[in-house]
Amino acid sequence: MTDGDDVYRLGERPGSAEPAVRTVAPGGSGGEPGDAEAPAGRGARPGPRPRRDPWKVSFAVLLILGLLAGATWVLLGSRLLVVREVRVEGLGRVTRAEVVAIAAVPIGTPLARLDTTDIAARVERVRLVESTKAVRSWPAAVTIQVTERRPVLAVPAGRRYDLVDKAGVTVTKTPRAPRGMPVLVVAGPAEGNPGVPVAVRVSRGLPQTLAKRLEAVQIRPGTSHVTLRLSGGRTVVWGGAERSAAKAKVLTGLLRAEPRARHFDVSDPAVAVVK
Asked: Quick check: 12 pLDDT over 90?
């Protein structure tokens, strides 16, 4: 090496006393200073959030409004879902023509506009109808479900019997009381008498051993209390419909213990009276 040659130490830059620093990226073999990526999570700024396209939002809103408007038109304004047929179910003594006539369902009216409660109320004006329910049968019909009155007691009326339901309404007339149907003895009209529902509940709730002996139920005038007439000329003061199970149990025991007795009072089953 000659005197004019420059001598460099390993790791030094020409003209500098400091060692040369070389930055190497992790996993790399070299590169220029500043090529390394900044550590994750340090000083990194989140990128800009995606901006919603106002045209897409407006289109979605218009689409929803259009669908709602279309559905409303189909239900209320179009001829697609209107009443074209009236169906009647549950008929026996009442005729279909009678129900359809009094129901007065407006044919051609959109089903969604139909007042089913009003239709049912009109049908319930028929005397032999106990209750009614009107329902929409999509896409083009109304179904009227009728529950007719059912006779449960026979009321003497001259030489005939009025067969009445649980409210005392006469359903039909017969020359004799049907077998197995209790006779109701009542002063005045049965319809509207508060003792009729009690008579129905008591007669229906009797155990078989007593029911087969029951001949008549008498309503005490001015009250809702009843007296039972059993076979063999026996009478039973029953009272109201409350505690009927206890009364039936006491009466069954008394009939067995006092076979010659003709009058029983179980209106208070805790203090029964036998004569």
From this structure: no
The DSSP bridge partners found for residue 214 are 230
pLDDT digits (tens, 9 = 90+) for 234-265: 999 999 999 999 999 999 999 999 999 999 99
Based on the fold, state whether residues 142 and 161 are members of the same structural domain.
Answer: no
Name the band, by pLDDT with cuts 50, 70 and 90, for residue 25: very low
pLDDT > 70: percent of the chain: 72
Gyration radius (Cα) of the chain, Å: 46
Same domain, 270 and 160: yes
Q: Are residues 125 and 217 in the same domain?
A: no
Assess whether 133 and 228 both reside in one domain. no
Q: 3-state secondary structure string, the chain?
A: CCCCCCCCCCCECCCCCCECCCCCCCCCCCCCCCCCCCCCCCCCCCCCCCCCCHHHHHHHHHHHHHHHHHHHHHHHHCCCCECCEEEEECCCCCCHHHHHHHHCCCCCCEHHHCCHHHHHHHHCCCCCEEEEEEEEECCCEEEEEEEECCCCEEEEECCEEEEECCCCCEEEEECCCCCCCCEEECCCCCCCCCHHHHHHHHHHHCCHHHHCCEEEEEECCCCCCEEEEECCCEEEEEECCCCHHHHHHHHHHHHHHCCCCCEEECCCCCCCEEC
Predicted TM-score (pTM) of this structure:
0.69
| Average pLDDT of the residues of the chain | 83
- Please give the pLDDT value at position 80: 72
Q: Do the domain assignments include residue 136? A: yes
